[in-house]
Design a protein that fits this description.
The complex is a heterodimer of chains A (about 220) and B (about 250). Helix content of chain A is about 50%, strand content about 20%. Chain A is an alpha+beta fold and about 220 residues long. Chain A has 3 domains: about 1-30; about 35-80; about 100-210, Alpha-Beta Plaits (2-Layer Sandwich). A 5-stranded antiparallel β-sheet of chain A has the order 3-2-7-1-8, with helices on one face. The radius of gyration of chain A is 27 Å and the shape is extended. Among the domains of chain B are: about 50-105; about 110-225, 2-Layer Sandwich (Alpha-Beta Plaits), CATH 3.30.70.1880. Chain B is built from 7 helices and 9 strands, in the order ααααβαββββββααββ. Chain B has helices at about 1-10, 15-35, 45-80, 85-105, 135-145, 190-195, 200-215; strands spanning about 110-120, 150-155, 155, 165, 170-175, 175-180, 180-185, 215-225, 240. In chain B, the strands form 2 sheets. In chain B, strands 3-2-7-1-8 form a 5-stranded antiparallel β-sheet, with helices on one face. A 3-stranded antiparallel β-sheet of chain B has the order 4-5-6, with helices on one face. The longest helix of chain B has about 35 residues, at about 45-80. Chain B is extended, with a radius of gyration of 25 Å. The termini of chain B are far apart. Classes of the chains: A alpha+beta (about 220), B alpha+beta (about 250). Chains A and B meet through helix 1, helix 2, helix 3, strand 1 and helix 4 of A and helix 2, helix 3, helix 4, strand 1 and helix 5 of B.
């Protein structure tokens, strides 16, 4: 026989337990980290993710169009080689397998800087929407890293001399604006490396070579 | 031993249930408090709708990414069924597969390493005891230099256009919001780990960044690591294939 007192304490314990289980599950269900951000940072996340979603939506639209025209060609029993060729050209250009050209910027780096500093610059170029980048004659592809200490920079076994050039294709205004804004990457690098000068020139036409490397992974196989 | 069992048997069942429940309660309170943990908590009212919006956008992003992967798979199927001249079609399809692999549009599995990079256990107020985008970039760069062939960060494939940026105490990679702990997956030759850990710049990174601030870097070497495909946009708005480029068959 259970005493009423015991029944009460058990009810209360069970109630608190239930509330805590729910609270714990809810806090785990929420995206970890988002609740740690300030309102300003959340606004930035929202801006970034919405811009990305817009890009993803237009990618979906493009892909749907490709599917539609391939399906249509199949149904009519005609060749869609033109579609395949343009798909291939776009893929190869993006992946760094073929040379590309377009508007963009030329960046001249004079003075001592480390590989890490140059990588910060490349990261900011990608952030500003650069579609293709080259450091001197080396196409920046997955696996391309500028490395070495002050005065001994290399990229893919090619030494970089003082005053080397980085070229990028993208919106010349956005690329220039992002790099040169107050407190931007060039200002930060200038504060870190004494005597460093980085000049950015917007250009109507920039040529970027193809990568010299074999970019296909040799140790992994495609999996679903 | 038998005395203990006999004593337990003598206890009324509600007492056993109650102690069980209290035990779980204690555990949950501890878990809840630990989760409240070291990261700064903001409590202002305007954040709730912002978090809702951000979560909604992330759900949309996940759905769009899944859609892109589906459509790309469909295109691969359709392109393989192309009715044109057999030899030419085979050649173009081989080139397409080559380009997709080179660019990171295909999920691949192979021997590799999975790293886990976390903030210091008790980060306090110091920014240095939290993992930054710079740390992730350094790890990625060191892996490339050691011969890695494919890398992903919390499911985002590192491609030629991937920027990795700080946002609060988390990062953005491919403009996707990624929160710690960070799982960096990589595929490469069998000597990848050896080459990484004997590289002077990686040793310097561990000595100057990981160890002094208590950041937690762990890894496991595996025979099979799966690095996901890039599920983002590849359309160029400014770059065009160079006219002088070797003609496509």
């Amino acid at each position: 026989m259970i005493r009423p007192q015991a029944r009460w304490s058990m009810t209360i314990v069970a109630l608190i337990l239930g509330i805590l289980v729910v609270a714990q599950l809810r806090s785990q269900a929420a995206n970890p980290g988002l609740s740690d951000l300030s309102a300003q940072e959340l606004t930035l996340v929202i801006a970034n993710v919405s811009t990305r979603n817009e890009g993803l939506r237009s990618e979906v639209a493009d892909l749907e169009q490709t599917v539609a025209s391939l399906t249509d060609a199949h149904d009519r029993g005609v060749s869609a080689l033109g579609e395949l060729r343009s798909d291939l050209a776009a893929l190869e250009a993006w992946a760094g397998l073929t040379p590309v050209t377009g508007p963009g910027v030329s960046i001249r780096v004079t003075g001592a800087i480390s590989g890490e500093g140059v990588e910060d610059l490349l990261n900011e170029l990608r952030n500003a929407g650069a579609e293709a980048i080259a450091v001197e004659d080396v196409r920046v592809a997955p696996g391309t890293v500028v490395y070495g200490g002050l005065g001994s920079l290399s990229v893919e076994n090619t030494p970089l001399v003082d005053g080397f050039e980085i070229r990028a294709i993208g919106s010349p205004q956005i690329l220039t604006g992002t790099l040169t804004r107050a407190g931007g990457v060039i200002a930060q690098l200038g504060a870190t490396y004494e005597g460093l000068t980085i000049s950015v020139t917007p250009l109507d036409a920039v040529s970027i070579p193809a990568s010299d490397r074999d970019l296909v992974p040799g140790h992994g196989s495609p999996s679903l | 031993m038998t005395a203990v069992v006999a004593r337990l048997r003598a206890l009324p069942s509600w007492q056993v249930t109650l102690s069980g429940a209290l035990f779980v309660l204690g555990f949950l309170i501890a878990a809840q408090l630990a989760a409240e943990g070291p990261r700064v908590r903001y409590t202002s009212q305007e954040r709730a709708p912002l978090i809702e919006t951000a979560l909604g956008l992330q759900d949309q992003q996940n759905a769009l990414q899944a859609q892109i992967l589906d459509l790309r798979a469909r295109i691969v199927e359709l392109e393989a069924e192309e009715p044109g001249s057999e030899a030419l079609v085979r050649e173009i399809n081989a080139a397409l597969e080559h380009a997709r692999l080179a660019g990171g549009l295909v999920q691949i599995t192979g021997p590799g390493i999975i790293f886990r990079l976390e903030d210091a256990e008790n980060p306090g107020t110091e920014r240095d005891s939290l993992v930054t985008a710079r740390d992730i970039r350094t790890l990625v760069q060191e892996l490339w230099l050691a011969g890695a062939e494919a890398i992903s960060i919390n499911g985002e494939r590192v491609t030629t256009t991937t920027a990795i940026l700080d946002i609060g105490n988390a990062i953005l990679a491919n403009s996707a919001y990624l929160a710690p702990p960070y799982e960096v997956r990589t595929i490469g030759a069998d000597d990848l780990y050896e080459r990484l850990t004997t590289s002077a710049s990686f040793v310097e990174f561990v000595r100057s960044r990981i160890e002094p601030y208590g950041l937690r870097l762990s890894f496991s070497e595996l025979d099979e690591v799966t690095v996901p495909a890039y599920a983002g946009t590849i359309r160029s708005h400014y770059a065009r294939p160079e006219p002088s480029a070797s003609p496509i068959p």
